[in-house]
Amino acid sequence: MAKKGAARKDVPTAPKGMRDIVGNEHHKYQGFFEKASEVALYYGFQPIELPMLEREDVFLSTNSEDTDLVGKEMYTLKTKGGDKLALRPEGTAPAMRAYLEHGMQSQPQPIKLYYYGSFFRHDNPQRGRYREFRQFGIEMIGSPKSVSDAMVIYLTAMILSDVGLKNIVIDVNSIGDKDSRVPYLRELTQYYRKHINHLCANCRERIKTNPLRLLDCKNPECQPYKEKAPQSIAHLSLASKAHFKEVLEYLDALKLNYRINPYLVRGLDYYTHTVFEIVEVPDAKIPDAPAENTTQLEETVEEKGKRTAKDEREAAANAPLALAGGGRYDYLAKRLGSKKDVPAVGASIGVDRVLMSQNYKAVTPRIVKKPKIYFIQLGFEAKLKSLEIIEVLRSARIPVAHSLNRDSLSGQLGTAEKLEIPYAIIFGQKEALDGTVIVRNMLTRSQDTVKVAKLADYIKNIK
Ligand code: HAM
């Protein structure tokens, strides 16, 4: 027989990289979703539930085939009717699909949405990386303004600090707009071509397919070339530079701990302008604190980037897991078939990773109430009527614990004591016939006999 708690080989197990979330752990997740939803609602975001499956096109058209997400990690299936669907690997493209499908352009802009639930990526499971994982996402669709970028970053950081995370650092970068991108990619590609013989196989491929992702490479042999590579913030168009400078000004004003990370390009293809990721660093040493005042912002964006490059190198050595990521995606709507561009910005929090943090303070979900009553029944007559008493309490919103499968008084009282529940209701043969119960104070051991019809009021008054 398998040991208690150990996985059994003779019964089916959950698929690799996926798992059951039970009991207290489930409460932890639910508590997080409730807390994050509450913060989002206060900031005027409205909930949206997106389907688990989308047409494959929603992801294919919004990312090039070279992104890991589309190329390797998507779970796809063909329906009996021949439709090609994908298990959602992320929520941004589906949220934009919903915005366009429901004509939300005609409502006052921006539309602010939040969503949460499971997402699926067929990746190699490792610490903090699952095949089914949970995200909480916010999307602000229909605003080109830098204040929206700042609000999304701020809100994401607030949710993380509200659940106890400390030493949060925001890595931020701008990859510019179309006008910045073309000359930048040309220069980046030319630079990397000169070093092609020293690069890893992935990077050699990326020169052809997705040069921006060259900056994502963690392979040690490519690091010296990455460090000297041209940086996107040095190639921003005037409009992009102004946008990024404003975002940084907001982040300064909001006193957020950020650092410009010129190598941050993100794994998804649809970004423009601002991109960011949030990590929790192990100690209180926050690298590259934000500028204290706006005079320092007169320093050009390029200079700030150079100043932080060393910090970034140090950080990369023991890179912590990204807890959240996001950015602006002004051109995604057109890729989904919209006639016009729709400016938008958003972020997603990796909830499984947040819950792994030592600093995570579990938030008790609203439905979980610590019972202050333990219901004890004695004898067949009482057992028969037990559910009626429990329902009297439930409909009065009084949480109650019980173990109807037990019979002895001492066993049930012992459990009530172990659970540190302050009151017990004792319901025996006599009480069942009289329509009463005995309410016992577990601490003082004093007891009262109470009519079932008056029970809810009685308990509410002993608060
Ligand atoms: P992402 O960076 O791919 O962005 O994912 C966001 C977060 O989800 C990551 O920072 C990480 O915490 C978590 N995550 C991603 N993959 C896994 C995995 N396999 N296992 C566990 N956690 C994971 C997006 O998904 C974009 N949709 C974010 C966004 C929203 N951009 C604009 N709006």
Automatic annotation (TrEMBL):
* Compartment list: Cytoplasm
Residues recorded as binding L-histidine, renumbered to this chain, are 90-92, 121, 135, 139, 266, 270-271
Name the principal localization, coarsely classed.
Answer: cytoplasm
Which EC class is the enzyme in? ligase
Quaternary data: Homodimer.
- Cross-referenced HAMAP family: His_tRNA_synth
Please give the name of this protein.
Answer: Histidine--tRNA ligase
Species assigned in the record: Candidatus Lloydbacteria bacterium RIFCSPLOWO2_01_FULL_50_20
The gene for this chain is hisS
